[in-house]
Amino acid sequence: MLEQLKEEVFQANLELPKQGLIKYTWGNVSAIDRESGLFVIKPSGVSYETMKASDMVVVDLDGIVVEGEMRPSSDTPTHAVLYKHYSEIGGIVHTHSTWATIWAQAGLDVPVMGTTHADTFYGSVPCARFLTQAEVDRGYEAETGRVIIETFEQRGIDIMAVPGVLLKGHGPFTWGKDAKSAVMNSVVLEEVSKMNLFARELNHFAEELPKPILDKHYLRKHGKNAYYGQK
Ligand SMILES: O=C(CO)[C@@H](O)[C@@H](O)COP(=O)(O)O
């Protein structure tokens, strides 16, 4: 069942250490099959060196295991809440990648300071608030998903135009149309987090990208008249 998706999710998980986004088991990737309403996620706490495609766990949108021998990622309820709320999302990634986590620990949005950012994210990547004691008690991981939704709704941000968020004091989540694009978005977020920190260090008054350039770069890749790359 869902053998191809398991392979895709497995390969996407292997990309995390390859791209330098994680150490040890500090991350997870999932992808959903919208037809069955089931998603595939990596098992919790299993070394990337020994993990196999057959170790991937299939869960439903309530996070209940449907297939697999292992316990799914501890972040499964966060993934489930996001898949349930946003039908456009096909893949989700969580990491503790260093540069993005620095911004998360500083409690700051990652501003658009260059075209590298604008090519992927149509605006600042928001930093969501800390969870309250009541939220932690109610279910930390599911409430984390709800805080992400709250952040995007309160700020009126389109989830697919800005496919990532920072969780204050924790780290980034990114998403995309599938697992591969969600991983690419994590790589971009990590790179721009690093670039921005150095740019602000060199010049505390370094400006954000002006709107016309943000529009041009984002829309030429993602707008309805996109023309970047090959047909
Ligand atoms: O954030 C954390 C731990 O603080 C987790 O996302 C991370 O360790 C990955 O956990 P899983 O191996 O996916 O259960």
UniProtKB/TrEMBL annotation:
Residues 7-197 form the Class II aldolase/adducin N-terminal domain. CDD domains: Aldolase_II. One of its GO terms (biological process) is arabinose catabolic process. Its cofactor is Zn(2+). Keywords: Arabinose catabolism, Carbohydrate metabolism, Isomerase, Metal-binding, Zinc. GO terms for cellular component: cytosol. It is an enzyme of class 5 (isomerase). Its EC number is 5.1.3.4. Pathway: Carbohydrate degradation; L-arabinose degradation via L-ribulose; D-xylulose 5-phosphate from L-arabinose (bacterial route): step 3/3. SUPFAM superfamilies: AraD/HMP-PK domain-like (SSF53639). It comes from the Bacteria. InterPro entries: Aldolase_class_II_sugar_metab (IPR050197), Aldolase_II/adducin_N (IPR001303), Aldolase_II/adducin_N_sf (IPR036409). It holds the Pfam family Aldolase_II. One of its GO terms (molecular function) is L-ribulose-phosphate 4-epimerase activity. Involved in the degradation of L-arabinose. Catalyzes the interconversion of L-ribulose 5-phosphate (LRu5P) and D-xylulose 5-phosphate (D-Xu5P) via a retroaldol/aldol mechanism (carbon-carbon bond cleavage analogous to a class II aldolase reaction). PANTHER family: FUCULOSE PHOSPHATE ALDOLASE, L-RIBULOSE-5-PHOSPHATE 4-EPIMERASE SGBE. Belongs to the aldolase class II family. AraD/FucA subfamily. NCBIfam families: PRK08193.1 (NF006047), PRK12348.1 (NF009003). This is L-ribulose-5-phosphate 4-epimerase.
